């Protein structure tokens, strides 16, 4: 009986926890994002307005349109894709927020048949 009470108490305590998700502060602004390619860490910046996202990476700017689904989810589509892969839209979802950053995940907006869906996560920090 004691074991059931302990398990029930733990279940109640863990079910009360929820991530903070105030996404409206992160719809627009300038952000920094750190990622790793082949073991090397890189940092890039991007600027987002209500309808446009501009990535700045290694001296190059790349623009995408932004279409908000709700306050925490949006679709990015490259304005000038150079490859077939860049023509595919990306679904971005803000999972949790802090005062000056947010955790997000992204994947292809349209699932490819007979292929597993690849979901990546990251953290963006608001710099302006």
Description:
The protein is mainly β. It has a single domain (19-126), classed as Uncharacterised protein PF14869 family, DUF4488 (Lipocalin, Beta Barrel), CATH 2.40.128. Helices cover 11% and strands 50% of the residues. The chain has one helix and eight strands. A hairpin with a 2-residue loop joins strand 3 (52-57) and strand 4 (60-70). The longest helix has 14 residues, at 2-15. The protein starts with a helix and ends with a strand.
Quick gist of this model?
This protein is mainly β and 128 residues long. Helices cover 11% and strands 50% of the residues.
Please give the alpha-carbon distance between the first and last residues.
55 Å
- Examine the secondary-structure arrangement and name the CATH architecture: Beta Barrel
Unreliable spans: none
Mean pLDDT: 87
CATH top level is: Mainly Beta
Biggest sheet features: 8 strands, antiparallel, barrel
Counted by DSSP, the helix tally is 1
- The amount of helix comes to 10-25%
From the spread of the alpha carbons, the general shape counts as globular
Could you name the CATH homologous superfamily? Answer: Uncharacterised protein PF14869 family, DUF4488
Classification by helices and strands:
mainly beta
Number of domains: 1
* The CATH topology: Lipocalin
Strand order of the largest sheet: 1-2-3-4-5-6-7-8
Give the ordered list of helices and strands: HEEEEEEEE
Radius of gyration: 18 Å
Beta-strand proportion: over 45%
Number of separate strands: 8
Organism: Winogradskyella arenosi
Protein name: DNA topoisomerase IV
Keywords: Signal
